[in-house]
Amino acid sequence: MEFGGGFTFDKEPCHPDNCSLFIGGDNLAGMTSLTIENWIKKNETIPQNFAHIFKKRKENYGFIHFVDEETKINFFEEVDGKKFKIGQESEEELTIHFFPLVRKKQAEHKTVDSNYGPSHNLYNLYDDGTIFSLYINIPTINNKDEISLYVDDDDKVVIISGEYKNINIVEGNHFIKKLIPTGRFETKIPLPSRIDPTKKVKIEKVDAISLFKITFTKGEGYKKRRLSIE
């Protein structure tokens, strides 16, 4: 198991990875899915926009599932890095916290060798009417030519990839924490609606820092079309 940027696992949840989070905590072994779910629902500080909990009684961890990826993202933004007390009626103090999913085979092939993570580039997303404006911080990247842009089949998820540069810093032999990322990265950013992949994307460097503004033209919504019948 891996705590921190993600939680490594080798079991299969009943929902896809992009609609699931890991739950862990203290003294959860022996508790059923329904018990954990009911206790979470009694804690008003935990968002309630999840589908259900999946947990084996003997395990000290489980899964929390969501109806779609956007709901999961909104949930995680509110609980990331926090630990919650549940089960006040229990004799033992029970706590629960939430982690992204990382499969073991993904962790073994992970090329980013820092705690920053391959998909944690901080960004702001704005809706400017006919366009989406994305401001994203990509450490060590100084030129837009070092960035590759893709869009998924539904034209609603933008994928930004590249490679962080190695920074040679000589400050003795021992470091306390290493958070400046290195290696390949890939950041997936879900959008509220489709973009038009036929339009050119504009990338601008913002000032002298590693902040880029990327502008996407919105696409038309899905329309019902009449089908011809032979």
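Above is the first protein from milestone M3; the second protein from the same milestone is given next.
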Amino acid sequence: MSREALIVAHGQPSAPVPPELWLMGFAEAVRKHLPDWTIRAATLAMPEALEREAAALPPNAPVFPMFMADGWFVGKVLPRRLNGAEVTILPPLGFDPNLPGFAAQLVRDALTARGWALSESRLLLAAHGSAKGPKAAESANAFKAALAAQLPDLPISVGFVEEAPFVEEAARDLPPQTLCLPFFALEGDHCREDIPEALNKAAFAGDLLPPLGTWPQVAQMVAQSLKDTA
């Protein structure tokens, strides 16, 4: 029997089209792992897109939030924008139980590709944070703890874009054999501009990886989460 699902991301209010197109491509990548499903996509930033896609969903269809925290947007804005649609909102990407294991393998592969020993390296998680509430930082720190359990020999630190400790502060004095992994679902202005700028100010000599949610393997992980709801 055919199933349907909706993947939702924040998007970029100042330029909504590129993230919307990226998310549509991501939805297609997820669908390749679920050939009998229809996978819809919409960002909060694209006018009327979420309302249109939600209205087309059958009852109890799963909605997967491509967010790293379960804060204001997932807990308040998303349900309101769904306009009472009878759907099942799943835990956001940042709380997916498979994410720490996936990220741990990603980090191992990145270190191996550079010829860096895990025990002699460092990892900096660059996360969003928020001056308005604790949810974003709590999510990043919970992920750090889960990732540390997977990589016990790798020192891990966290820096934030919008609250202390800021990325620049966290990156300062880190050794060259350090990876910086943005704890973000999509590649918006924070990942393209704010994080690289903060790393430059800190004279960071390590390597900056793509945002966690943009790695190709994430599509398979999201597909599995949707399949588990069937």
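Note on the second protein: Residues 182 and 210 are 7 Å apart (CA to CA).
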